[in-house]
Design brief:
mainly alpha; elongated
Length: 179
């Protein structure tokens, strides 16, 4: 029996191929019938939300690997900056957010999951670092500005300079360490 993670992986393959995310397309990619997909994801909307969560689960695994056990807010943000600028990124990550019918729901889900990871600091240095990483992720998925790894590492260094010198809450200030 095909598992949900297998279906979600094939859904990403559909997006990577540049195809529309439909129940039929995913069923073909998995090699099962459309009712087999519908058994796990009753609608295309539920499939789309599940794909976003699946992507974020993969991201979180990579971020936890980079950040280590029990990371504070600054360490988590530093891991995201490095991830966005140095990891191999997948245009399918961005494609899943393109469904205009679901954009508000997908954006809310994305924001909720990201806030769990980064907190909701409004400190300008933290917001600037987050915006650099978010922009780098989108830019790299689109292939707009093709920087070599040395340039990306230099941007990481500049961005991490905004956050603070070490993997502590100093860059956030005591009042913002976990916000």
């Amino acid at each position: 029996m095909t598992t949900k993670p297998e279906i979600l992986d094939r859904a990403l393959d559909v997006l990577r191929a540049g195809d529309a995310l439909t129940l039929d397309a995913v069923a073909r990619a998995v090699g099962i019938t459309k009712p087999g997909v519908v058994h796990h994801f009753p609608t295309k909307d539920r499939l789309s939300v599940a794909v976003v969560d699946h992507l974020l689960d993969h991201w979180e695994t990579e971020l936890m690997h980079r950040a280590g056990p029990d990371p504070d807010a600054v360490t988590r943000l530093r891991a995201y900056v490095e991830f966005a600028l140095l990891n191999e990124l997948d245009p399918a990550d961005l494609a899943v957010l393109a469904d205009s019918r679901l954009r508000p729901e997908l954006a809310a889900r994305w924001s909720e999951r990201m806030s769990e990871w980064f907190g909701d600091s409004d400190r300008p240095n933290i917001v600037a670092a987050r915006l650099v990483a978010d922009g780098a992720w989108i830019d790299r998925c689109l292939g707009v500005l093709d920087l070599d790894e040395d340039h990306r590492r230099a941007v990481v260094d500049v961005t991490l300079g905004l956050v603070g010198d070490g993997p502590t809450a100093e860059g956030l200030g005591a009042e913002g360490a976990d916000s």
